[in-house]
Amino acid sequence: MNHSALTPVFTALRVGLHALVIGLAGYVLVRSCVSVAATGRWAPEGVVIGVSVLFVATYAVAGPLRSRLRGPFRLVWLAALTVEWIVLAALTPDATFLVFPLFFLALHLLPVPWSVVAVGCLTVAAVLFFAGHSGWTAGGVLGPLIGAGVAVAIGLGYRALFREAQERERLIRDLVATREQLAASERQAGTLGERERLARELHDTVAQGLSSIQLLLHAAERSTTDASALDALRLARETAATDLAETRRFIRELSPPALDDRSLPAALERLAEQTTRASGVRVDVRVSGDPAPLPMPVETALLRAAQGSLANVVQHAGARSAGLTLSYMEDAVTLDVVDDGGGFDPGSAGDAARHPGSFGLRAMRERAAALGGAVVVESAPGHGTAVAVTLPIGGGA
């Protein structure tokens, strides 16, 4: 796990477990060495010393080989430690206390409920070893039971804390990724907005001016009889026509690619075909009223609304089909996007965790409001969704 606020807690727990194993094993070794020095006998103390060293060595193997201790290898490692502990506990009562770190290892390595079952078996074994060495006493029974209870509580708490830390780390990664995506989207939106603004300025100034010049020169051609002046006027008009064509090409390049043909219905047809081909959701397009040229910002806003709505349909609605209806009215134009998906509660659409498409709806509303229009969303769980975007035709003037 990467570094987080809980990393010191996990580090302290691991260090505490290592210290417990080394301390208890060292206690057994020291006691056995003192006994050998006092009595001069190596049996059974020599066996205890050898198995204690083997126990510590087996435990230490998990450090350099931690990345390889996966699945059955962990179980083999835990089984080896358990067998070595059983040998030690059978030889000396001092080794019985090593059962406490085994509790934590079993809780860490085994899944619930098998880890709890393993702790219960180790507890019974520890009680029997205490009874075999010192007879049945209250301390010999209550000590392992209390230790097992504390170990289970700490072990399960550690699991819950570790899961919480992993969930936090995952959420942080998601938030960082989302922030990067939003930053990229904002940069892209800013770039597109500036391109659209330049296209509008070119259309409203240079293109209109060149068009007017061309008309004036054409009128002057018709009214003059001088041959040389007529040639000059014709050359000037052709030059203005060439520059006007170049300016319109620049405008098309700066406009959204889907609107290159200057036909919003055709752009919506292409979008529907692409969506159907990519997602399998059938998308139908209908045009109501008499199609008329619209201001570029209005066409762009409607195309973006269609793109965002269909993206929500594909990603979140679980719909089989959707319909786009473009309605031309006297002073406004409306785009309706209707799907037969799962729907949602519009009242909770601001909850981004439950409705990931709510950001797109908010952006759609902001774009429409900037043009003097409005967005209406009608939906209910299990009854599909309808999005209506209405813009005044003069909204982009």
TrEMBL record:
GO molecular-function terms, A-Z: phosphorelay sensor kinase activity; protein dimerization activity
Gene Ontology CC entries for this record: membrane
SUPFAM superfamilies assigned to the protein according to its UniProt record, in alphabetical order: ATPase domain of HSP90 chaperone/DNA topoisomerase II/histidine kinase
InterPro entries per record: HATPase_C_sf, HATPase_dom, His_kinase_dom, Sensor_HK_TwoCompSys, Sig_transdc_His_kin_sub3_dim/P, Sig_transdc_His_kinase_ChrS
Entry keyword annotation includes Transport: no
Membrane-crossing residue ranges in chain numbering: 12-30, 42-65, 85-107, 114-136, 142-162
Pfam families in the cross-refs: HATPase_c, HisKA_3
Domain of life: Bacteria
Domain Histidine kinase: 197-395
Record keyword Transferase present: yes
Keywords: Kinase, Membrane, Transferase, Transmembrane, Transmembrane helix, Two-component regulatory system
UniProt protein name: Sensor histidine kinase
Organism lineage: Bacteria, Bacillati, Actinomycetota, Actinomycetes, Micrococcales
